[in-house]
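Archive entry: two folds, one per protein. Generate the first.
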Amino acid sequence: MKALFLVALSLTSIFVIGKDEKYPVKDIPLELMENVNLVLREDHMRYTILAKDKGVFYAHLVVTILNEKGNNYASQDLGYDKLTKILQFEGHVYDANGKQIKRLRNSEINDRAAFDGFSLFSDDRIKEADLTQTTYPYTVEFEYEIEYRFLYFIPGSVFGGQKRSTQNASYQLVFPPALAPHYKSINLDVLPKKEILPTGLHSITWHLNNLKPTIAEAYRGESDLPRIMAAPTMFEYDGYSGEMNSWENYGKWNLLLNKDRGSLPEATKQKIKQLTSSAKTLEDKTKLVYEYVQNKTRYVSIQLGIGGLQPFAATTVDEVGYGDCKALSNYTVALLKEIGVKSYYTIINAGSDAAEVKKDFPSHQFNHVIVSVPNGRDTLWLECTSQTNPFGYQGKFTSDRWALLITEEGGKLVRTPKLKTEQNTQIQKAEVTIDKSGNAKAKVTTAYSGLQYENGGLHFRIAGQADDQRKWLEDNIDIPNFELGAFSFKNVKDKIPTAIVNVELTLNRLASVSGKRIFITPNLMNRSTGLPPKNENRKNPIVLKSSYVDVDSITYFVPEEIYPEFVPPAVKIDSRFGEYESSITFSQGKLLYVRRLKVKPGEFPASSYGELVDFYKNLNKADNAKLVFLSKT
C-alpha cells in the first residue's frame, strides 16, 4: 500500500509539473525560428461593442524571445484616462522548457502620468510592466482587458513583421447587430468566420497561422503586412453621438463637436477688422490674420478627455494666448469669419512618414488640424501651430495627402497640393581659393527652396539663435577639417519658402599634395556616397517620394604656377530615376565646376531595382572623381 501511495504521489507530481509547463520552445516549428528575434506564439485580440458608448478590448499575447533584440516585447504599456478603465492586467514568464518562473504581481505594475514631453494639459496615465529576462530563450505572456466608456475608434490589428514570426494569431469583433461596425482587410486573403454567439451577439473572426518574417525592402510604399481596420458605424463619445458610415456624417459629428466655439470678444473683432481694413485681396487679408495668430499665440498640446478631439473655445484662446492644433485652427477660422473670409476647419494625418488615409474607409485616421481657405480656383492652407511657418507653406508635414474639410454639409475629402520637383531646389554657389599646400578659403551661398527648406531641420533653425544656426552648419556641412567663420541666415517666407545661408570656411588640407601634384575632388560639399542596399530578389515596387533639383556652381582660384594635369570628363546620366550632369572648365587660373542633379518621384517596377543601384553607382563615381593639378615649380 505504501509503495502504491508513493507511485501515486510521484504520478501526481509529474502531472502537476506537466500542467505548469506552457509554451515550450521545442513546440515552435523550425521554419519560424529562422532569422527572427522573437516568435509570437499567441497573438489574439478581441473588441466587443456593448453599447454605442461602450466597448471592451481584450488581448492575449505570448512571445518567445530568442535574444536581446526581442526584449522590447517583454514589456507592456497600457494607457487609460477618465473614460478608460483597465479591467485586467496579468503577466507570466516561462523558461525554455515552458516552466513558469515568474508571475507579474500588482506591486510590479508601475502607474504613472503619460508625459509625452509636449502636452501641457493631459489626464492620460499609463500602467506599465517589464518582464525582461537575461537568459534566452524565454517566453512572456500578457493578458489584459480594457473598458472604453465611449465608442469612437476600434483598435485594429497588423499581423507579422520584420525579424519576427507568428505561430497563431486572431482578431475578433463582437457586437450587437444594431451596432455592427464596418471593417477593411488589407493584404489578407483569409476569409473571416462569421457566427452568432449564444448571447445573441454577432462575431467576426480572422485566424492566421505560421507567418514567416517579412523582408525589409528600401524604397517601398505602403506596408504589405496583413492588416485589419475596424470602426464603429454609430458611436457616442462623452455625450456626443454620431455616425461614421460616411465621410459626410463623420464630418457632421466634428461639426457638432465644434458648435458654439467660434465666438470672439468684441475688442478682438474690432482689432482684426482694423488690421485687415486696407488689405485688397482675400489672400492679403488671410495672411494678416495668419500672422496675427502667429504673433499672439503659441502651441500647447491638450489631451484632456474629449479635449483630445474638441477644440478650446475661441474666446479661451484669445484670453490665454495658447492652444493645441484644434484650438488654434478653430480660433483662426473664427477670426477669418469675422472679416468675411470663408475657411474650413480641416483634419489631416500629419507627418513626413504618415500613413495614407484609406479614402474608402470612413474612420478616425487623423492626428492633426489645419485650416483651408478657398481662394477662387486655388486654396490657401494654414498651419496654425507654428510661430515661424511661412504663410501658406505646408511642407513635408501636411502636403500631398487626403484631408477632411469640416463644412456645414459635413465632411468632404480633398487632396492637399504637392510641390513639383523643380520647386524643391538647392542652389549652391561657392568661391574657393586654394594655395599650393592644398589649404583653402571658401565663401559659400546656398539657397534652399521648397521641401529643401527643411533640410536637416533648417526650417526650425532659420529664425533661431546664432548658436543653433552654428550647430546646424556644423552638423550639415559635409567637409572634413573645416573651420567655420562668419555666417548668416536669411528667411524668405513665401508659400514656397527659401532659406539663404551664407558661410565662410577655412579648409585645411582640402587638397592632398604629393610631390608636384595636387589632388582635389571638385565637388566641394554635395557628394553622393550612399547606395541602395542589396536586394537581389526584389518583391515590392520601388516608390520614390522625394524629388528635388540640386545645382552646384563652384569656382576655384589656384596659384599661377599650378595648372590641371588631369580633368575628369563631363558626365551625363539619364535614367528613369533621375538626371545628372557635371562639367569642369579651366581658364587663367580659374576652374569652374558645375553640377546638376534631378531626382524624380514615382512608382517603378521591382525589376528595375538593379537600374536604381546602377544610377547611384554612376552618380557616386562622378561626384567623387578627382582632378589633378601639377605645379610648374
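Generate the second and append.
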Amino acid sequence: MKKELLFAFAAFFFMSLSAITGVYAGEQEQKTVTLSKDKVDVTGDNKADTIYIKGVYYEEGASFLKEISLEVKASDGNTYNAKLEGGYEPQIQFEDLNRDSIKDMYISIPTGGSGGLSNFYLYTLKDLKMVDLSVPDPLVINSQFENGYKANISIQDTKQSYTFDLRDRSEEYERLGLYVNGKLSEPTELMVNPYSTLKIIPVEGEKGLMGIQRISGAYNADTIAFVESFWLYEDGIWNLKDTKVMKMNSRKR
C-alpha cells in the first residue's frame, strides 16, 4: 500500500512539474521583437547612437502590442530604456523640439478603436540622461447642447466660445430622443476627445506641435467640429500659441 501511494505521489509531482514547465515555455514564446532601428545622435556628442522601438505582441498573429519600449544604446556603451503604453505600429521621429540643438525622440502609438486616438511621447537623452519631456495636454473644452438644435463649446485656455448650428441634424436628434420638438430633453454635454493627431509642424518659425481634437455630439461618429492647437516648447514648458475651430457639416461626416 505504501509503495502504491509513493508511486501515485511521484506521478502527481511529475505531472505538476510538466504543467509548470509548459506554462513557462508558453510565456517564453512571447518574445520581444524589434519594430524599428535608427542610428541618430541623440546625446549631443556628435556620435551616432542606436535607437530601438521594441514590443511584445498580445498573441501570435495579433497586431496589438501589449508591451512597447524605447531602448537607446548610446555611444558611451550603456543602454537607456523607457516603457511605453501598448498599441499598434509605433512610429518614431527625431527632431529638436525643446530647442537645445540636440535631436529629441518623438513617438506616436495608435491605440485603435473608432476614436482614432494615439498616445504620444517625447524623450531627450542630452548628456546621457533620459528625460521625459512630455507632450502638451489636450485643451480643456467645456461643451453642451442648447435648445434649438445648437451646441456651444468654450476653450478654457483662450476663453473663446463657439456656437454651432446643428439644425441639419434635427431629424436624427429627434429620433434619438436628444431633442423633443427642438427642446433639449435633458442637459447634455458633447464628447470632447483627446488628441487624435499630434504632429510636428513649424510654429512661428520653430519646430512645434499641432494637436487635433475631435468634438462629437450624440455619438462618437457624430462629428461636430475639430479643434486644432499649436504649441511651442519654451523655457521648459509647452506654450499654447494659437487655436482653430473647424465645424463639420453633417453630410461630410
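Annotation attached to the second fold: The CA atoms of residues 34 and 54 lie 4 Å apart. Residues 141-252 form one domain.
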